[in-house]
From TrEMBL:
Residues 210-308 form the HTH araC/xylS-type domain. Transmembrane segments: none annotated. GO terms for molecular function: DNA-binding transcription factor activity; sequence-specific DNA binding. Keywords: DNA-binding, Transcription, Transcription regulation. This is Transcriptional regulator containing an amidase domain and an AraC-type DNA-binding HTH domain. InterPro entries: Class_I_gatase-like, DJ-1/PfpI, Homeodomain-like_sf, HTH_AraC, INH-QAR.
Amino acid sequence: MHNVAILAFEDVAFFELGCAVELFALPRPGVEDWYQCDLVSFTPGPLTTTSGFQICARQVDNLDAFSTLVIPSWPTQLTDIPVPIAAAVTRFYEQGKRVLSLCSGAFLLAELGLLEGRQATTHWRYGEKFKSRYPGVDYQDDVLYVYDGQIGCSAGSSAAIDLCLEVIRDDYGYKVANRMARGMVLSAHRKGGQAQFAETPVPENNSQFNNAIDWALQNLDKTIDINLFAQKASMSRRTFDRKFRADFNITPKEWLTHQRLNLAKEILENQNYSIEKVAALSGFDNAATMRHHFRKEFGITPTLHRKNFSPLVNGIMVGDSTP
């Protein structure tokens, strides 16, 4: 049995708190030994969140009854950590129990010295502040999350969901985690090392550049030469590459691969086509190339993704013997 404590305090971030509650506290009929979860506080309530809403939490003086602690956020400015929280979180860590920090929650762990010499991340907005304040932490720029089995740190907002799903995947397996992701209308698996950018981010206003993006999205199943892609945006190749890097933090080729993988996932989840046909429809040279990129990006094969995530298909397609 996994007993989860979600730490609440005055001005806790409401979104990340809600993510933790959604993923760990809601009942999941059909999942054996699902998490037992409590919203806990070391001070009496009610507590006011960053959104102005008031919440009530179970007041505790220790965390001994729990095996996982979720810290939804923490102030990024230097403040004194309440002694009961500092003592309880440190003891929790020293007992080898699992600690998850979401968004700015990493600041609490770092201030307590629990991240010294370990990998960590937080929202990109706080990255420079974090690195200058905690030079002994192996800070990971521009990743969704890091998780080593005991400590997990996520970037901001939706990355908190990705970290929580990774933990659920660890505890209950792919099928359960993927079913939850599907229920939340999310990608089945975004790896922690993926950059902190939206799957199809919106570039700054530039009609020709936007038109080029639209053209590429409409022609993913075809061969797209990057020079032609740049011409569609009425830019030189060098300017186009710089624009892409500035807006998306990746190269045009990487962006195309990412969009083709998204298209492949959509086809896998909604059509009964063979893996070879899925590869062709999503613009990959062949099935082997698609499998390579799919496994690298999502950590599973296209066939396993379909098996776990599609309501239409259960098993490997006839004529597609290679997973």
